[in-house]
Amino acid sequence: MSEYQFFASDCKLDEYDNGIITFDGKNLEGLNRADRCITDFDERYAMRIIHEDDMTEASRYTDKKYCAYIEWYYCTFNAEVMIEYIKKHLQNSRQIELWDVWMGEKSSPQIKKCRSEDIRITTIKEIWGKDHYEKPECLLIYASDRQDPFKC
After folding, report:
1. At what angle do helices 121-128 and 76-89 cross, to 10 degrees?
2. CA angle 137-21-82, nearest 5°?
3. pLDDT of amino acid 29
4. What are phi and psi of 88, to 5 degrees?
5. Which of 86, 88, 132, 143 has the fewest Cβ atoms nearer than 10 Å?
6. What is the C-alpha to C-alpha distance for residues 89 and 68, in angstroms, rounded to an integer?
7. Is 82 helix (H, G, I), strand (E, B) or coil?
8. DSSP assignment, residue 57?
């Protein structure tokens, strides 16, 4: 099994691909998609958020209608992109869940709550930037300008 990091929401989640693929120290960002099909690249800076078609694992933890999994490695730059992604999503949604679980694990998750105005790089690092998996966790981020952020 493996670690599974994903977003969950009642509103559709945008997909994201930062297009950063490096090969032999060169940035291939300008190449068309077919030319990007390479097998050896530096994943430390690449990041993609992809709609989850198979909700089997996510539905063990959340009842949200939409999920998107993340392919990435934690770094400050990517954490900043995550914060912008979350804030953009919360312009049209009341809340978003950030999940870090081990596929197949059955223990209860630790759930924390945070207002969108309080999210920082350290917030992302605490849930998704650890060197190793510890336990299932969820960070529920809600739009602070909503009258009732936990009502859907």
Report:
1. 100
2. 30
3. 57
4. -65, -45
5. 132
6. 12
7. helix
8. T
The string of pLDDT tens digits covering residues 39-52 is 445 667 788 899 99
pTM of the model: 0.80
Q: Is the dihedral of CA 84, 50, 11, 149 positive or negative?
A: negative
Reading the block at residue 124, the tokens are: 């992302």
Q: Token pair for residue 128? A: 């998704």
3-state percent helix, strand, coil for the chain, nearest multiple of 5: 20, 30, 50
Contacts of 96 (CB under 8 A, 6+ apart): 7, 8, 9, 13, 86, 89, 90, 140, 141
Q: Which amino acid is located at 150 in the chain? A: F
Nearest to 3 by CA among 110, 125, 127, 143: 127
Q: Residue 77 is inside which H or E element, if any?
A: helix 76-89
Neighbours of 49 (CB within 10 A): 21
Average pLDDT, the chain: 83
Residue length of the chain: 152
CA distance 145 to 136: 28
- The pair of three-digit structure tokens given for residue 38, joined into one six-digit string: 């390479």
